[in-house]
Amino acid sequence: MKMTDEKQFQSRISRVLITEQQIAEAVRAAGERIDREYKGKPLLLVSVLKGSYIFLADISRAVSIPCEVGFMAAKSYFDGTESSGNVQITLDLAQDISEYHVLIIEDIVDTGRTLSELVKMLKAREPLSLKVLTLLDKPDRRVVEFKPDDALFTIPDHFVIGYGLDCGEYYRNLPYIAEYSED
Ligand code: 5GP
């Protein structure tokens, strides 16, 4: 069902969890950490679509050293709010990652299934190094052991939307992170 009713759209934004300003500040600091860690190294920032498209756009502009960007897509969540645990690469990188230090730019680590699978698959391609930076971490929901190398915000077990994160493909365009509730 396509959503066109603005009132209904607004009514499902339960409360703002992380403001635009808090995100901007955390992204700026993460950019500085990346500059320090990867100075003088061939760096590839890998975005896992679609959820991380806004985060990648902001992080890449917070980085001031030379870097390239690459895009992947993996399917693990379908139209609702439950993880399926079934991870499939639907769009692969164009780059041969054996020539790069790879930093995966992820929107959220929830059960951990998607990233633990993706990391395994990418490590098999023997990158110079492989780390994961996530915007959000929901450690209470973990079902497989997975710890991101860097997480900008740790959040409780709530379904969140905004800043690239969707519910049924809507709400990605919110400039902040909010809790979702279906009235
Ligand atoms: P995991 O494999 O860690 O369970 O799930 C990772 C993917 O599930 C994320 O990349 C994201 O697309 C989706 N996901 C997990 N939690 C949330 C959430 O609270 N909100 C939204 N919009 N997506 C989520």
Any overview of this molecule?
There is one protein chain. By secondary structure, the chain is α/β, with parallel strands linked by helices. The chain has a single domain, classed as Rossmann fold. It contains four helices and nine strands; from the N terminus they run αβαβαβββαββββ. It binds guanosine-5'-monophosphate.
User: What strand line-up does the widest sheet have?
Assistant: 4-3-2-5-6-7
What is the CA-based Rg, rounded?
16 Å
Give start-end ranges of low-pLDDT stretches.
Answer: none
Strand content: 25-35%
Shape: globular
Cα-to-Cα separation, first versus last residue: 17 Å
CATH fold category name? Rossmann fold
Please identify, by name, the CATH architecture. Answer: 3-Layer(aba) Sandwich
How would a textbook summarize the main sheet?
Answer: 6 strands, mixed
**Count of DSSP H/I helices:** 4
Output mean pLDDT: 93
Helix/strand/pairing category: alpha/beta
Order of secondary-structure elements:
HEHEHEEEHEEEE
CATH class: Alpha Beta
- Number of beta-strand segments: 9
Bound molecules: guanosine-5'-monophosphate
Number of domains: 1
Helix percentage = 25-40%
